[in-house]
Amino acid sequence: xxxxxxxxxxxxxxxxxxxxxxxxxxxxxxxxxxxxxxxxxxxxxxxxxxxxxxxxxxxxxxxxxxxxxxxxxxxxxxxxxxxxxxxxxxxxxxxxxxxxxxxxxxxxxxxxxxxxxxxxxxxxxxxxxxxxxxxxxxxxxxxxxxxx
Length: 148
What we know:
The chain is mainly α. The protein is built from four helices and no strands.
């Protein structure tokens, strides 16, 4: 429990932040496609996606706490390591795009980053559903034992 919030609540907060990240990326792409000119659309697209990146980075704190707890307890499924690996790569490449540091900021590379993000996001949703389902019956049992 962190600051009075249980691990499942932290996972829910993280999932909501990640869904918000995905929605902001979709909004940024839509803003780019609906703009009349590239001069107007690209900066708007960049600002919206930077906001999405910040939301995703914030959710990392919750995800890392949950993951580290599972690793320490030796209860981490293999998908956690795969998800973490792809998540770190996605975060590192995303930070380069947000910082606008490399000249390889091309449409092809952005599409590659989108595939990485969607793969990581999908793995995270699967991991959330797997962990949440496994802990809900355990929590109910604990509540029942306290009541008895």
